[in-house]
Here is the input.
Amino acid sequence: MLCKLSLRNISKSFKDYAIYFVTLLLGVAIFYIFNAIESQTVLIDVTSSTKEIIDLMVNMLSGVSVFVSIILGFLIIYASRFLIKRRNKEFGIYLTLGMSKRKVGTVLLIETFIIGLLSLVIGLIIGILLSQLMSVFVANMFEADMTKFTFIVSKEAIIKTIIYFGIMYLLVMIFNTLSIGKCKLIDLLYASKKTEKIKLKNPVICIIIFIISSLVLSYAYYCVSFGVNEMEGANGIFIPLILGAVATFFIIWSISGLLLKVLMHFKNNYYKNLNSFTLRQISSKINTTVFSMTIICLMLFFTICILSSSLSIKNSMTANLTTLAPIDIELYKTVNMTEEHATQYGYSAEVINDSKISINDTLNKLNFDIKENFKDITDVFIYASNDLTVKDTLGNSLAYVKENYPYLDLNSAETIMTISDYNKVAKLYGNETFTLKDNEYILVADFDGWIDIRNKALENNSTITILGNTYYPKYKEIKNGFLNISSNHINAGIFVVPDKAVNDSLKEQEHLLANYKANDEEGKKEIENKIDLIGKENYAKNTNLSASTKLSIYEGSVGLGALVTFIGLYLGIIFLISSAAILALKELSESTDNKERFNMLKKLGASEKMINKALFRQIGVFFLFPLILAIIHSIFGIIFCNYLLETFGDEKLLKSIIMTALFLIIIYGSYFIITYLCSKNIIKDER
Amino acid sequence: MHVLEIRNVQKYYGSRASLTKALDDISFDVEAGEFVAIMGASGSGKTTLLNLISTIDKVTAGHILVNKEDITTLKGNKLNKFRREELGFIFQDFNLLDTLTAYENIALALSIQNKKYPEINSKIKEVAKELNITNILKKYPYELSGGQKQRVAAARAVITNPKLVLADEPTGALDSKSSRILLETFKKLNKDYEATILMVTHDAFAASYASRVIFIKDGKLFNELIKGDSSRKEFFDKIIDVVTLLGGDLNDAL
Here is the structure.
């Protein structure tokens, strides 16, 4: 009996449930897709280093999934509360007919169960179908070939989805039953009769609050954009973030009060067609939903920032590789390792012995013929001296740096290279070469954050002292250059000094740079594999020789970029769906009230066209308002993300912003259209 | 001149198996400037009749003419135009929009007709003075008493100078004092604005303010009373006589 009632209720109120149901479907499908990525990657042909990154990604995605399920859980509870509110009268009638609250609770329980089950099954089917497309995308992201196409169903992901959503639905059931238990009959029956009280806010207070919160917001904007260099450490971001969130709340609060007041002054427009009605509707809705509007606005803001920066990160990470990793391999090894250093890092005596011979000899010992495999071989040394630490190089600007960058280790030794070594490298890399007088030095770097610090010092003409001799800067600014090949601009500073300035005792590391002796990709890969093999088998044990290769850097970049993109997509889409769903549900839950109002307008003779226009505008503004605010936030958010990602090089931001806009238009836009069509339907069927 | 002509109107509900004749071949006319009350027990078909005249519902057979125009054949935009230009509505539950002030509620009827603000403003000022609601124009419906709300609704109904004002149990939700004030207002509107008013009620007291009362029973015309020169008290007594004759639950309403 109760079961029959529940089923009837569902089919009867399907229109109300449609958005809720679609949201659940999307949630389940996306949850499955991202958790099934692991099984998708089995198909594609990747190297071991990419495989490692994929493993890392799978781990991170499952971590993110917990967070996602919390968000979805809140969304589902919020949504089901809306739906209960809509049906207050129905429950009231059950209770007056003598049904016990327990039984009403059971009806609700069965309904939730049926909807949950349906959404899980259908959502999983959709998810499984879509994840087949995902495998093409995965292969594309990791720049791997799809070896074969197989229809894959991930059992683990299915089970995980069922467990996570099962828990969510269980929580919803508990919440629903509790909320029914607490209800008073009179409130249930007369919930719809309650006339809304309209409190107009004091315009003066609104203006004051608006101005104050605008100022606060501007300050937050300033902090993350133009004033970003003054931000203290990673925690510094929280202050503008919190300020921004609070300011957003008050701006929405004050605008909702002011907007109407202002627009009412344009009397000719205000009293035109249904304008007065539409405006009142909008303002009363925003007025009563300031808090959820704020949450939605912030979620949209995060969505835009996450999507646009995560979509650009992969491009930017691979874009600079040709300049940042101009050669195939860089081998490096500590020279003349001390006992102290060896014990500190747990190196054996063999390693100490090995550090006394050249990289060439070490490789020979490991049966690797350098002449046979490498060309363009360049062998250089870097030097370090305890007399030249970061502190020593800053000169007069030490105080400034101490104050503004309190987290810097000022006691670490600086990297030194001789001019002839540096020029050899620069020539090989295609960078600028230099000449030096006997008492001069040049500072090269490419890490933007450090360039600022260094330039301050160079402006003050700070001298350095090595082995008792003093050197003056040849240029008053940083010169661009680097030694280590990598995916990013990471050179914090190399002091290029005359050859006579250093001696063997200061030798710190030997670097051997080379290209592979091969004509095609295949040949290069073969040599790369040999290096890999050496790394795995011997040399880690008897030497501290390390290698960076262009290929591994490239794969790492691609993998890392893909990882960030996937997590960004996952979070972004979930945020977007959640915020759009809240708006849609809010709008639809009020459709009963609206229905009466629009019927009234019809009786007054408003045409269908007028009414549809009013409805469209009303819902449109309701959807656009938080979006516009979020977009303004995002402009500054993206500027900040750009700053954070600076080390990754120039962003191809425009492309990713367009992609983000597409996502927004498709997901947010379709929620808007569905909401509009649903409301139109609800208003239409008057009989 | 006939403002409203009801010609052999029938309205059936339900299927062939279980047919309900809500209105069964009913005909009457309303002259311009008349104040007509329609009385009948619940289920007699009076609200159905009102719904048909207001084009909210469609006739099964017969014709309804407003100013010689057959409104049973109107469709779409013409129907909306008819509603907004020829009719004014007053409902039992006021049907004011709770998000708008009294002023804006009244203005809406005109702004739907694309009237400009200066005209709207002057008309509202005029009607408000007439109906004695000037001091409550800035208030929201929830701040008003039932009687005040109904007078605002009346102002909204007449401000467009409609051919016909339809009132569905306008005193149904009011106390006796408010009822009296509202009915006096109706009378005034009827006289000063020459508004033709068609009021559905089951309250003999309310009906006694009309110039003519039409009684409906089981979907058919039952009787008709014309006030003529008699006083309101005498007219009321006459109405009560018919009501007694009608019997049924109409008595309960007294």
Remarks:
- The CA atoms of residues 53 and 64 of chain B lie 7 Å apart.
- The beta strands of chain B are 2-13, 20-31, 35-39, 61-66, 69-70, 87-90, 164-168, 196-201, 212-217, 220-226.
